[in-house]
Amino acid sequence: MAAADRTADVWGERTPFAGGGDWPARVDSHVEVPESAVERWVPSACVLCSNGCGLDIAVADGRIVGVRGHAHDRVNRGRLGPKGLYGWQANNSPDRLTRPLVRSDGELRETSWDEAMELVVSRSHELLETAGPLAFGFYTSGQLFAEEYYAQTKVARAGLGTPHLDGNTRLCTATAEWALIESFGCDGNPGSYTDIDVCDTLFLVGHNVAETQTVLWMRMLDRLRGPDRPRLVVVDPRPTPAAREADVWLPIRSGTNVALLNAVLHELIANGWVDEEFVRERTVGFPALERTVSQYPPERAAELCGVPAELIRDAARIVGTGERLVSTCLQGVYQSNQATAAAVQLDNVNLLRGMIGKPGCAVFQMNGQPTAENTRETGANGTLPAFRNFANDAHVDELAALWNVEPLTIPRWAPPTHALQIFRFAEEGSIRFLWITATNPAVSLPELRRIRAILSQRRLFVVVSDAFLTETAELADVVLPAALWGEKTGTYTNADRTVHLSEKAVDPPGEARSDFAVFLDYARRMGFSDRDGDPLLAFSTPEQAFEEFKLVTAGRPCDYSGLSYEKLRGSGGVQWPCNAEFPDGCERLYSDHRFPTHAEGCESYGHDLPSGAQNEPDEYRAHDPKGRAVLKAAEYVPSPELPADGYPLLLDTGRTVFHWHTRTKTGRTPELQRAAPEAWVELAPADAERLGVADGDLVAVESARGRIEAPARLTGIREGVVFVPFHYGYWDEPEGGEPNGRARAANELTTTRWDPVSKQPVFKTAAVRVVKVAGGDGAARVPAIASQERTR
Amino acid sequence: MSKVGAALEELHRAEEALADEYVQVGERLAAEHEVWYACRRFGEQCRLHADAIRPFAASHEQPLPPAGIADGGTTTAPFWHKLAEALGRRPESGLLLLDSLRRLYLQAQEVSFHWIVAGQLAQATRDRELLAVVDELHRETLTQIKWLKTQVRQAAPQALVVGSVG
Q1: Do A414 and B157 touch (CB under 8 A)?
Q2: How far apart are CA A347 and CA A361, in angstroms?
Q3: Is 50 exceeded by the pLDDT of residue A787?
């Protein structure tokens, strides 16, 4: 039964434990009927953040009626966060899409699956003949299951043969992927969440973990409240819950992460806090790194980053003298200026300290979404399936052989096209067919006026697969009603490589179908076949697709070959690689300090960090790191858009604990919607005073690209920085769809720019101004967490 | 003046010309966001290269024209920017991009040639300071070329292979 209101008590009761101990179990559940009325519990994992907490779905009368955390799951030991506890209610929402829609005379009208799919297929055939495969683009998600991405990848890369398939993971974890590749040669987080159980030092950079990964924060908090509290250093411009717990909090100026991390590296070297043997034997690139960071003494970084040099020294001392260091970063790095360059410097911190591949020693390039890892593993985002290197002919030929397709079918002339470039090709008109699955670019991409204009073009045929009529679906030519989590079977993998199986608990509403079934149907209708004329998608169930995906991963770092649905059932999560060598999964990568950087195996030959220029294969081979990690240096380069005349403040967009993405699910969950009903604008008191703004006043935020209005909230945020949550679009506004009246989506303001290496959009540094619109009632309706002041 | 000075003047001229080209391409291709940002950065980098050559030219008594504008913009920039956004909605914009990359690539190769010459001269005249500058800055030019290759590989198929559609 429902216990305490977990929107008021987000992290629940503490279960403190000492380093090296087992994290105690604590089972959280929220079920809307008496437990005796629950007919069955179906094993699954949460899909409302990247943590991937194991849970059981409660079913009664053919409906989902609740969830309960798995006590024995390695990720959460029974705990769930507020989104996980309450968010399942969106499945039962009365406004689910239940029938396909097609546009006729400007209006979307209901139709049959046959008619909708025939329309998609006839348009596809016509375009294939006249324009060829490069006129097709696919923009997918971090929310589907591995089997679905795998089917989609095969459709795009081998069926049609287009490089234009990317996930919205480009917005959340592309930098995680590329930072891991640049440093270690391949994607895949080296560490395990259990490293938190044994660490003595936590270094969190731009990672608002308490709100973005509540259960991971519970784990950290239970250590922080335990008898041997790890020391905690937090870098964040906002007084986040983690910042308030920190021993040292660095309220950094947005966009200066590289300068700060270079100063930390400077201090590690200057004070001899370097594992010299590890660096000498197991890394390359130290001399260049040393030369670069020698230019960043704390005093210089203090000026660039706007934090006292003494604080930087304190932070570096903690990071430099800990014996078991866990470092993490997320969107404060990935969606900010110099994303990959900064994320790589965090890798460098752990590499200089030799703190990797050992219990309590890890660097986590965190994920944003529950199945983002699978978008990356299956080749639906950035590289080819199973972390294959598009520029390595042997890798592509091997994939073509596994798929039994003509090797030149799979595009290999350039990296798979990234999301914003796909939209650029659609803008110029060379992409004419865009299929969007389980994501809402009309709210989540930068510079929304431009995105709406692109999606509204008559020459662009837009297909949207979604469970709800999102702002994006409103602009589509065809809308396909999708089954949600709990209504289909498949696997997904979290940020510490833990794979879960999520089994179908209930039927989808009406005629809604899984994306897996839809891709299969599309491939069949399109007549995609392999070289022997057999169907390209030779599977009909998710389990069969999983079995095929296992073959594609065998021998690669993300080796699934030892896994099966049977093995995953009731397992509490298994970490890849899982194969003959690691039959029960592998807790930590690189425990032998051998990294997958060999030219033959690596996922990419890497990039010049400042420009994004790709290294040539022979250039890489000439300096083959051969199993050593790569220390890559980067100079700090200021953001091209800095506060200037007219736009004196820096916009920081981000998340609240109560919502997920564009609120398609969480906005339909009463507890979560009540907790954070509308957008707000977070301001520092000094800035507010200058602007004559009081708490609760209605203010406008304006950039060169757009304008929004929302109530002001004064917090301990860094002066000069304005925070706006990006979750709020228009589907539940009276006018719906586009902002006909008062705009409130943060991405009206953001700029079209991306990191040169990871191609992740830069959401967090845009120049804006704030003006008062009207007096308020004295208190903005914003989540309590955002308004709490620093307590430590 | 000397032949060495003349070679440095050639290098200086080529860097300034490449800087101008980056600035102009950036403005004309403002709808290609990545190209726009990179061209701004590389344009500034070429100006810095040109400035770095000055003291060496001076020591060879080689006069150089006054320094170019360093902010990477021209008076016609807003006009080109608007035009680029309008043209950027036509499929032909891919061809314009390809042609711009071709010209940048050739000019960058010319700059690289002059750096090779400058490096050889530095060795032959035992000019350690020049040698150090050549080492560092030529590497940056080579990275520019690498970036141009990265761009052209993605742009060419899209510009040339996608058929026209009604």
Answers
A1: yes
A2: 12
A3: no
Read off the tokens for A5: 């209101």
C-beta separation of A177 from A472 below 8 A: no
**Cα(first)–Cα(last) distance of chain A, in Å?**
35
Q: How far is A438 from chain B (nearest CA, A)?
A: 26
**Whether A715 contacts A787, CB under 8 Å:** yes
Cα distance between residue A320 and residue A316, in whole Å? 6
Verify whether the Cβ–Cβ distance B165 to A135 is below 8 Å: yes
Chain B residues touching A756 at Cβ < 8 A:
34, 37-38
Residues of A in contact with B159 (CB under 8 A): 430
Distance from CA of B63 to the nearest CA of A (A): 33
pLDDT single digits (tens) A64-115: 999 999 999 999 999 999 999 999 999 999 999 999 999 999 999 999 999 9
**Radius of gyration for the alpha carbons in chain A, expressed in angstroms and rounded:** 25
| Residues in B touching A611 (Cβ below 8 Å) | 38, 41-42, 143-144, 146-147
What are the two backbone dihedrals, phi and then psi, of residue A380, each rounded to the nearest 5 degrees? -90, 5
pLDDT tens-place string over residues A225-247: 999 999 999 999 999 999 999 99
Q: Is the pLDDT of residue B31 over 70?
A: yes
* Distance, CA of B73 to CA of A133 (rounded, Å): 38
Handedness of CA A751, B22, A257, A274 (dihedral sign): positive
A253 alpha carbon, distance to own chain's centre: 23
Q: Is the ipTM of this complex over 0.90?
A: yes
* Packing angle, helices B33-59 and A419-428, rounded to 10: 100
User: Which positions 429-458 of A are in contact with B (Cβ < 8 Å)?
Assistant: 429-430, 432
**Residues pairing with A652 in the sheet:** A723
pTM for the full predicted model: 0.96
Collect all residues of chain A within an 8 Å Cβ-Cβ radius of residue B89: 427-429
Question: Collapsing DSSP states into helix, strand and coil, what is residue B75?
Answer: coil
- pLDDT, one tens digit per residue, over A401-424 is 999 999 999 999 999 999 999 999
Contacts of A610 in chain B (CB under 8 A): 41
Q: In Å, how far is A725's CA from the nearest CA of chain B? A: 25
